[in-house]
Structure formats: structure tokens, C-alpha cells
């Protein structure tokens, strides 16, 4: 083992493991992976006063760094990926927005190549199979019923890299499409929906397993008409996505979801668009014009919220410092849970020997100070090697 220059010990930090937090812990890196013992000449990085947590896993993200995953070139997509990596997201699914079927199929082909070469973890189709009543920042004229044949067309175009479809399952073909996706190991997510409580239960029984950005783009919780929110929160088979940017959700709504679903059923996501990590200005979300002002993205026409400018380091920071969610629960929601859903928990989502060396360094105030992906520093932490 002696002589391996790629052996590194990150020492002295609070390390968040699946079994709990270890004070004055260490993480051993050998090449691209986490190891259980270091080489004799391993270099040590003193991270006293810091936290080490697993790299973040974002299963719902439309772009960043000024680049769109729906319409950008390959280089644009990679710009967005790099932007989010710099904010701690070491595993990322590219989400599309509603468009013409042929266009979406073409995008799937482009994005699938980036999945195959390891830059993306999969593709998420958000639209066009959603409700015009809850369309949010999607072009109403391009919306379609979730015809299983058309769902299958996009699955085929993605060449096995499709990870998730967001569907309004109450629409014609919705339940059949859920069953099709479940049969092929693709996540059926309920979202942008006007479903009743009963219709939502039917979709869950058919195989739906995720709530796309719970509370947003669905009927509110009512005492006589509980709608989809109650059905999604109460069912152990459902993981609920939450956008913790301070705009999409009131802190009490986030607390409600954590309390009722439990941390093991929450996935913190960004739902980020081009402006994430880039700044205010004018953007396009699919065919729709968006203005970002003070970090909030809204459609120019209609003023609907149009995705977010969130990065997951900010979501983590808010969850711990503002929402007072325990650190271990936040790690579960931002890393382990989405990794399990995406079928990649054997490689990422926790700090365990044999897994990819994907991790995030946070200071005592939970501000990002370092990011490592597959053993390579994306953001070099300040403490010097000794």
C-alpha cells in the first residue's frame, strides 16, 4: 500500500455517517473511492472545526450557470453541471420542461450521452404530461395527456437513462403510464396535478413513488377535499420532493412534511433553472420568458414562479440554521434518499468504504468550504495538507 500518492486522510472533522455523527472523525480516500484504511504515506488534511457530509444528490434540476438542460448545447449542459458541483451537488439528474415530443426525444438523445459518460445520473421528464390547471411555468399549448405510447417514446429515446417522469396521473392514460413506468423501473412522480385524494391514492397503488415538489403546482390541503397533499404525505411508499429556498415553501410547510413523512421520505431538490449560480436577469424556460429578480424566477407573462435559483448548499444551510432540522436528517434528505430512489446508493449517497469519494466540507456555520467528486477536489478546502 505504501507509495500511493492518491491516498488522503481527511481528519479532525465531524463526519456524518449512516449510523450517526462521529466527532473528530476521519474519511480515507484512495484514488476515486472511500477506503477503510490509509496507505502508510497518506497525506493528511486537518479539517478540525468542520463537517464532512456526503456529496449532494439532486434528482430535479433544469440548469444553472446561465445554461439550460432543456435547450442548451452539450457544453452548456456541462456548464450547468459544473456550476452545481461547485455548490456540492456531486450527482445530478437533468430535468427537461414541456416541449414538442420530437424535440424532447432529441434532447433525450443528447442528455443520454452525458449520462453514459458519467456527467449526469439520468433524465427527468417534467412535462408535457401534466395538468393545464396546474401547469406552473410550462407552456399550456404543448401539454398532452400521458399516453403510454408517448411515454414509451421518450423512454426509448433516452436509451435506458430515463430516471423519472412527472405526470398528472388523473388525466386520461395516467394510471396506465404509471404502470408502464413501474414495470420498467422508472420513477413515476405525481406532480403538476389537479387530482383528488382518491385519484392520488389510485396512482400510488398503481406504482407512483414520488411527489414532485410537494405543495407546489397541486391543490392545497383542504379539510373536506384533502387532495393529493394528504395522500402523498400519509403513504409510506411516497418520497416527497421539497424546494427549500424560502420562496416555494413557508417554513411551516417544510416542517409539516418532515414531521408527517419523516426524514426518510424527504428529498431536498433545487428545481433550479438557468439562473442558479449565475444571477438576476432575463432567461428562457423552454419557450417561456422568465425574469429573475432578487434571486426569484417568475414568468414574464402571468408572474408564476418559474423554477428556482437554488443550489443545494443553500438548501442544506437553510434546513439546519433556519428550519432547525437535525443535521443527520438533512443529510438523509439531500444525499441518501435521492440516491436510493435513483438506484445509485451502492455508489453514492453516504460516506462508506467502497463508495465514490463524493463529499462536501462545511464549516461550523454550515457554509460550504470544499467539494470532492470521485477523489478530485472541485472546491479545495482552505486547510492545508500536513
From TrEMBL:
> What are this entry's molecular-function GO terms?
metal ion binding; N-acetylglucosamine-6-phosphate deacetylase activity
Q: Where is the Amidohydrolase-related domain?
A: 51-377
Reaction(s) catalysed by this chain's protein: N-acetyl-D-glucosamine 6-phosphate + H2O = D-glucosamine 6-phosphate + acetate
Keyword Membrane in the entry? The reply is: no
EC number, as in UniProt = 3.5.1.25
Q: Which Gene3D superfamilies match?
A: Metal-dependent hydrolases, Urease, subunit C, domain 1
The kind of enzyme this is, by top-level EC class, is hydrolase
List, from the UniProt record, the residues annotated as the active site of this protein: 271
The source's superkingdom equals Bacteria
What does the note accompanying the cofactor annotation read? Binds 1 divalent metal cation per subunit.
Q: Which Pfam families match?
A: Amidohydro_1
- Cofactor(s) this protein requires: a divalent metal cation
Q: Which UniProt keywords apply?
A: Carbohydrate metabolism, Hydrolase, Metal-binding
Q: Which GO terms describe its biological process?
A: N-acetylglucosamine catabolic process
PANTHER family of this UniProt entry?
A: N-ACETYLGLUCOSAMINE-6-PHOSPHATE DEACETYLASE
Q: What is the protein's name according to its record? A: N-acetylglucosamine-6-phosphate deacetylase
Q: Which organism is it from?
A: Streptomyces brevispora
Tell me the gene name. Answer: nagA
